[in-house]
What does this fold into?
Amino acid sequence: MNVDPSRRRFLHTLAVGSVVGPALAGRPAAAQPGEAFWEEVRRQFAFREERVPMNAANLCPSPRAVAERVRELTRDIDVDCSFPNRAKFGPLLEASREAAAAQLGVAADEIALVRNTSEANNVVNAGLPLEAGDEVVVWDQNHPTNNVAWDVRAARHGLTVTRVATPAAPSGADELAGVFERALTPRTRVLALTHVSNVSGVRLPVRELCDVAHRRGIHVHVDGAQSWGALDVDLRDLGCDSWTGSAHKWFLGPKEVGLLYVRADRVADIWPSIVAPSWGGEVEPRPRGARKFESLGQRDDAALAAVATTVAFHDRLGMARVEARIVELATALKAGLVEAGFELVTPMAPELSGGVVIAACEPDRRGALVTALYERHGIAGAATGGLRLCPHVYNTPAHVHRAVRGAAALRV
Ligand SMILES: Cc1ncc(COP(=O)(O)O)c(C=O)c1O
It folds into this structure.
């Protein structure tokens, strides 16, 4: 195949990262590159144009560089699974931790690389020291692992779980924050939130809510499954006590790797869910900081190592540009769906949403609509909360257009 030299340079930049090509060099973080840039980004992914992923809230494809890294290191283990050969995986895990921590603006000691958001949410849920009579306030839109999981803990330890419902069409961040603030009581010990909801696409004003809760000494836990890799997240700025995410969603990383952030001063308070040999022989953990939460026995070392490769991919695009591109595509998608006659569940305003776009659709019609959109128009969405479509950097305006056209045709 003949590849023109500038494209080859660009591909090398994205795939290997050792060269910063002219397409990327010296560009201020917020400047948005043109469509040619994003076309090249799309070519880093193996999916075919007939089967276009638009379901980032559930699972994303990885760019070739990440998939190749997982394959290469898995093969390496299969060729030689001796202790000496696998010694390299300790430093590779630490490199992944450091890269993920740096991208999120926190210290490596505050990051545990666990298996997914479900597990990370449950570590916090099961590990916080709570007593009978304590109250946990949760958003009713939380994922079951940050919702039903609290009911199970409450049944075991006599806690109270209070569910907060937010308005269907929030007027702004203040209204959302006010609903939670009014729900807090002197017994509230934990405020369990979701950064961006997977069932409505609503983004909560987490920073404001942390300020409110921290004035009352409440632990704020945030499920970031729909924001890690989609939004330009700075965890210090966000201010929460714990935060979770899955590498296989918007982050575009290896499958079955999750991230758990616990702020340094909260690590000692949270009990581990699993104690495996890496814990050490004493009650006090041998691992430093949040590493104590990843004492999980044998792991998929190749997948863990590939987190650093994924961070490098994001860094070369620039997280601010990734977020801006996702907002741009999501905004076009929302506008198109509205024009096609759909009512949006997700707010139009970018400050109240992220990359999750949901259009209202009767529960009994959702499955058929999503299946037909995939089979007849080649767009893979989901039937969660309505018709859910989540565009990412690998999607193009043509994909968005196709999704809108397909949804419009199927609606009538
Ligand atoms: C908000 C939220 N939290 C947690 C999860 C669970 O993610 P995982 O299956 O990677 O654990 C999901 C999955 O869609 C989600 O949307």
Observations:
- Residues 41-61+319-411 form a domain with the Aspartate Aminotransferase, domain 1 fold (CATH 3.90.1150.10).
- The chain has two domains: 41-61+319-411, 74-314.
- The chain has 15 helices and eleven strands.
- Residues 109 and 289 are 5 Å apart (CA to CA).
